[in-house]
Amino acid sequence: MAARGAAKPLQHLWRCDVAMARLLRARRHEPGARRILAEGWVGRWPLSFLAAPQGLGRSVARLLQKPSYPKLCKPKLFFPFLTGKPVWPSNDAVSQALTSRWEEIREEFRAVMAESASADVNTKGLTARGSWQKVPLWSHGQPHTENLAKCPVTAEILAGLPLCKSLGMVYFSQLAPGTAVKPHFGPTNARLRYHLGLDVPEGNVMLAVADGYYRWAEGKTLVFNDAFIHAVHHEESTPRGVLVVDIYHPDLLEDERRLLEDLEKVHNSFFPAEYTRVLPH
User: Fold this and answer.
1) Domain coverage including residue 125
2) Do 155 and 242 fall into the same domain?
3) Domain Aspartyl/asparaginy/proline hydroxylase: where (predicted)?
């Protein structure tokens, strides 16, 4: 029998969509599926269309609608019932956990970046100029065990956090001086992204989110929803380093998180190479 990876790309994608639709149909009556299916969108497609042969008439009616995105927010996987604001307070339990041992995390960051940093498909595609490198720690629920073993303090702290294991990542990120990252949208509004400042030069080093500009600070977090358009400008002379941690949106219920994780597992079974390459950003 031919391996899944041998299928033609479009046929392979179709098989993945069929498998995810089958999962959604099987679980459509569960509590965790109600809001996801009733209101969720994948691009222009309502998720209810995938899951409901019985409710096909209602789903077809939804095809005539359009998702109601907040201003400057346009992710592929969109849930309008989640609070939509670009920047969030940084005084929550996740921020406290990350900042409590930030200097030890910085030591591990510096060591592992010197040894294991690389550019992935997204950093190359999104970098307008300069150099953007990463060391992945978690990708879509899959641990990068070799890198985590080199960062025991970071790994210990991450183990106690509600990491976004569906379309979420954790990685060390370093921008070389003079780097600019193009404006782009993250893949979903179902997560919040935490940046823990590790090496932050003074001056013109900015994160643009929606219509605002924000500076990192060493030992502090900057929390935003990367479904909103965002970009980075680094005009100083030393590298900027942060730890990037994706956490589930606080409005998502536990059952909803588990359903999204199961959908991610189905996708991973068809496209495992994407997780090895650390996609999407």
Assistant:
1) 87-248
2) yes
3) 100-250
